[in-house]
């Protein structure tokens, strides 16, 4: 017997077992980014073993999405704080007004004595808004609002008092009325004169994004700052009392992952939830492990954001965050699933999923000359690293001057659809790359047509490709590539959008048979 040969094969066999085991561990391990989609400004709480998260969707309606997770890794939408933030010209896209990049910004989420508190602020309304409920998953939410609009605030309950901390650079604190109707007189004070100080004097973005936490009797205030010629940075200030004094330090500088706060698991593990600017797909969440050292939270592994996390594996964002829709509704179904949000406040008289069962009908009710000013564009997120959106639409009832189809919405938007000009219909593609001109037009001689947009976000490639089909099987590329770009005027990752608007005559409509979203490569 050749013992050396047998030993060799045994070693190979054992190595194979080890590799398989390691592969199994990797397959059951979460990875960063946590959510490859635009879910910025997160606030996360844990109630027993269930996690809840709020985020920012600004000018979208309904607004302030609320998500739920049982394992801190995989999330699903469960509701919104409000249907309409405010009714004014900007939120209603009336009289040439709009509120892209504004609406409501970073929220604070708390659970205190059986009540959930979700607060946000808005330059569009000029107010601070607080929504409360006893049932975060089913509502209803009660609204409280007052002026002024407290920038990037954090709500906190301490010693029977309700505090709000906010600011940029200079961080302040104020006490609220018990009924949340406003602030108590003579309670405002400066909490930290220069919260940006830990990153130095050369500053691109002063400390903001306040989130406050209490651990073992001490208070920890998280902020983000951005040194000039540097990257987004996490700053933490610590104090023995909520009113200070506070001492601060840099807590994380890696990959620009910053802004957020602390969350613990039932088993006693700690994480920081943060996000990263990731190009055209938007601002995407990360989790970073935390260890407590000398009463300070130490973020990351050797100061770095890890790729792998000791948490359950990330599942697809479909159907929890985005999802396809056949527009078929049964008794008791929501008219629109939570994955959908309108661009600004909708006119609810101009859309329906019941007038033609199994279809979404978008009707025109006014004249618009700009896509970004058009009412009732229905949207949901694009997702990375790749995603595609596909529609089937019946355009038989369009009127001259109408435009309808599928878009990817940001300031530098792309549209593919049908235009009705005179007595003829055309397949068109339009890319807003400066002049907003129509790139291609092909005459259409049938009423049902299919469109697809494919987005490639890998390594911030940020390219979109456009396709049409006359039978839903054979696809033709059209119009070349749109180089997508995240812009601050819209301040949001790209979204798929279903649109129909009139430029000459009102009263036309189109029927969308389905919207399908995929996270698989599609060519």
TrEMBL record:
Site residues (Important for catalytic activity, responsible for pKa modulation of the active site Glu and correct orientation of both the proton donor and substrate), renumbered to this chain: 152
Similarity comment: family membership: Belongs to the glycosyl hydrolase 43 family.
Keywords, comma-separated and alphabetical: Glycosidase, Hydrolase, Signal
The keyword Hydrolase appears for this protein: yes
Residues annotated as signal peptide: 1-26
Name of the molecule in the record: Beta-xylosidase
Alphabetical list of CDD domains matching this protein: GH43_FsAxh1-like (cd09001)
Originating species: Leeuwenhoekiella palythoae
Beta-xylosidase C-terminal Concanavalin A-like domain boundaries: 334-517
Gene Ontology molecular function: any one: hydrolase activity, hydrolyzing O-glycosyl compounds
Annotated GO biological process: carbohydrate metabolic process
